Records
---
Amino acid sequence: MIAVLDLGSQYSQSIARRVRECGVYSRLLPYDISLEELRRLKPCGLILSGGPASVYEPGAPRLRPEVLEAGWPVLGICYGMQLMAQHLGGEVGAAAEGEYGAARLVIDAPEEPLLAGLGGELDVWMSHGDRIVALPPGFRPLAHTANTPIAAMGDAARRLYGLQFHPEVAHTPQGQAVLERFCRICGCAQSWTPASFIEEATQRMRAEIGEGQVICALSGGVDSAVTATLLQQAVGDQLTAVFVNNGLLREGEVEEVLELFRDHGLRLRYVDASAAFLAALAGVSDPEEKRKRIGATFVDVFEQEARSLGQVDFLAQGTLYPDVIESATPGKSAVRIKSHHNVGGLPERLRFRLVEPLRYLFKDEVRRVGLALGLPESMVWRQPFPGPGLAVRVIGEVTAERLAVLRRADAIVRAEIAAAGLAREVWQYFAVLTPLRSVGVMGDRRTYAQVVAVRAVAAEDAMTADWARLPHDVLARIGSRIVNEVPAVNRVVYDITSKPPATIEWE
Ligand code: XMP
């Protein structure tokens, strides 16, 4: 394991992801973690992330010096490098000019294992105001750029390294190779694979759950599907999965989920609660109010099912690592659990203990684990779908009729994207039913019908997104099929805003 000490950079998560892509498990930890706690986690090396502060600012995050001196190999990135230099007797100063964006790195020590075999020059991404003015004793310069005389430094004897550039971002194409070299310097085994995760998680859950009974909510999404499959593998019939049809699912979704898990031999309870959800949504247009009512109805329905099962000890949830990181209190070593927004409130009301087998995985890792567990590609590569379902995509009041219109239009969007072979490439693609009506003409007759918006975005994660440049012929087919096949609709528009400033969903 490589511990990434998070000094506040917006890229800290990416460091952990990239290290894992090297086949080495990595976790983000608070920068002020104690030596004792860190030792318990048995890392084979440390990475100090970047951060927005300047080492001379009062209140800037500092490491505990004993952590740096404990003998682990350390790689400091940007602010992490500067902090390391400062701790070890070097000097950091404000650069006359900051360096932000692409730069050309010239490698001055190509024999050094951190940068060996990468050629003489690299394209790198820089983002710093301060820089190293004097190296700490024992270090030598490894690389420079036009603006930064010491863009990489190292002390091979103590296995301490610093990079002024960011190897973890896509704009540093060889960054992954640099991190891989650091993993090798640390002597890490490249054993972080879906199979090793499944093996370890299964054993851990067996120990944790013992003879207890576990309940799990299936949503039709990847995370809950992988959670349920993993638990079933670990504790078999001690798991009951509950699939609540909230009436807000997409066309064909209920059947697909039931069929998939029937084949997997999961003990599954199916509850059709569409009527209860629709009743709760009657007359509600405000998106937040919709969410609240859906959440509350879900808790009611799930609670009723759980009670009917008799004694249940654990609730399994598909919480992922980004949720865990986001809800961690900065500066505190303990990670606070965020109740999953789709089943929020359940653990408190039912006094279940939580099992969260995916809480240290990123989404792409969950997908790989799903495939290794034998889940089909069609499930594993599903696009993200919000817990409150189509209710957030019917703008205005949610009624059975409006849901039916949206479902048809959405099925057409999905079918055409799939037919064009774009389903993996596009992050999300769906239809939205707007509250607008407009005049149209069909077969010489005037129409006054509804407007459907099509949303398709490209993204690496849902934090930012850009509208997808779908081929015009695909858009043309989507538009023409919707107006021809969905009688209530006479106009289709395409959303050309990015996030930010817009969001992915319309709500
Ligand atoms: P926005 O619309 O904020 O959405 O750009 C970001 C991502 O989150 C998804 N989303 C949800 N996912 N429960 C979920 O599991 C929810 O309540 C929820 N709301 C939005 C959205 O589809 C996008 O991928």
Note: The longest strand covers residues 91-107.
---
Amino acid sequence: METKVLKPTRENIRICGDAIKRGELVAFPTETVYGLGADAMQRDAAKKIYAAKGRPSDNPLIVHVDSIGAMSAVVEKIPSVALRLAARFMPGPLTLVMKKKSVVPDEVTGGLGTVALRIPLSQTALSLIRAAGTPICAPSANTSGAPSPTAANHVLADMKGKIPYILDGGVCKIGIESTVIDVTGKVPRLLRPGGLPVEKIKEIVGELEIVTDGSVALCPGMKYKHYAPKAEVFFSAYYEKMTEAICDWYDGIVSRGGKPVVLCLDENSEKYGKRDVIKIGANYEEYAHNLFADLRLADEKGYGYVIAEGVPDRGIGNSLINRLIKSSGGRII
Ligand code: TXA
Ligand code: MG
């Protein structure tokens, strides 16, 4: 299959909307990461997503709609806490898990009685949903296990020959996926930290249950290998002597014949002397924005090992820690 990369012109959005209606796959930009979209109401279309990604079929997809009103097509009832969160943060990097209507196929929800919903902030994504005239289910548009795509060329690298269309809307603004909250119970539960910091959600909901026990896979997707480049990733804890410890670890890898690179904040780069670094940005928002792209870059440059600097456990840092623990497979130094 030929994969066409299209600019999001009105005509191309119509072409892609028609493809979704026909049950085909279209990758599209959002403010978090690129999604691999299909008509959420067509069983066979959703199945194609799992095949293209090599994704386990028990890992449910996020359904993207263009408005709060459009949610009622797929959920039984929107709880009042969900309405408050939606009014404040949607469109934006927030996904809410609610009880689904029976019209939503099991292929979309991994057989669960709930469905995850979000309204993306990207105009291209919203236009695509409107052109398709249906909710669009979409996971991140990467091969299962690989870093999520934050630019059209990342999608092309993973999906070339497997899908007909990629809408190229440039680089994703946030760079890590949405925050997922389950609002089916009395107290909202954080299932996956993400682009919307937990502190902001707490301001609206007051109480938020945060399950820190990694052995409980509430978000089915979180139990699988994730965000991993070909290089072996190490993630540092965040503390005063972090840069010295990273230098020691780096030198240890070199002495065993390996080729490492450090992912560091711009301001820290000189602390690593002549060692190879990739400057990831000036602050933690930029760290999040560039993380997945720089993991892919490390592979392209032929590094066998990536050592990622630690980040403080607050704001977007909390979500970064989640991604880096997964990306490193828990190899923390
Ligand atoms: O920012 C994002 O959320 C991106 C863009 C494309 O919207 N999408 C994304 O999808 O990250 P994906 O499939 O890579 O991650 C979705 C996560 C998975 O961990 C999945 O298990 C969880 O959401 N999820 C989906 N439906 C769920 C449900 N009904 N209950 C619990 N978790 C659910
Ligand atoms: Mg993903």
Note: The radius of gyration is 20 Å.
---
Amino acid sequence: MGADIRRSTDFKAIHDAFTKYSVIVLRGQEAGPEDHLAFAQRFGPININRFFKPVEGHPEIAMVLKEKNQTAAIGEGWHTDHSYDQEPALGSILHAIEMPPFGGDTLFVSMAAAYEALSTPMGQFLDGLTAVHSSRHVFGAAAMDSEAAKSGRLGNAEAATQDVRHPVVITHPLSGRRGLFVNPVFTTYIEGLSDTESTTILEMLYAHCQQPEFQCRVRWQAGDITMWDNRATWHKAINDYNGFRRLMHRVTVEAVPLS
Ligand code: SIN
């Protein structure tokens, strides 16, 4: 739609598209860190990431970086940013600063489409269940021998103390659509089920959600901004560009409690 994140007059159309689609791509933005932050603040207060190395001089902007000599990318597993927070982030706004010559796409899943494709009895079974999400096993001390931590891209392990409970099925605060709210990286178990039941149900849901029918794929060029709704999607970074650098700036916007 040729939108420019710096133009306040474009904001309503961008917000409407975000509400309707949950994932929006704004191509070729000539935006610096201040423009990125100002755009995010139109949606709400910034949720400062505790674990990612920030952009110098901008603690609110997290660096999502893979250097050419590194093998692990950040965000390779299917996840929802900040689902371990009491009020999971409304959205994440990722700006492509430096892209490899090929690859480095990001995949997304629509959690409402995945929920709606479940059978009625399975939907009814999941409705009313609560899941626990945690940051500990991903960003805590146990994860600090990873390449991302050793290279300084992730840190602050002592801040990984979040354990929260969220409904397994939520009503989206903007669209009113029902959608699944569990993810393979941060969800640890479903309350009230045995370990085997919880693991089996979560694995079944994860396999269901990963079907291509529910996915879209963003193929980036430097300058592009993609914004996604963390209450409506999963995402995953494709790590297929070894030997090249990829640098993204990410700003995350605070949200409201889930129901
Ligand atoms: C993220 O998980 O927030 C980053 C996704 C990406 O780098 O494509």
Note: The domain at 8-253 is CATH 3.60.130.10 (Double-stranded beta-helix).
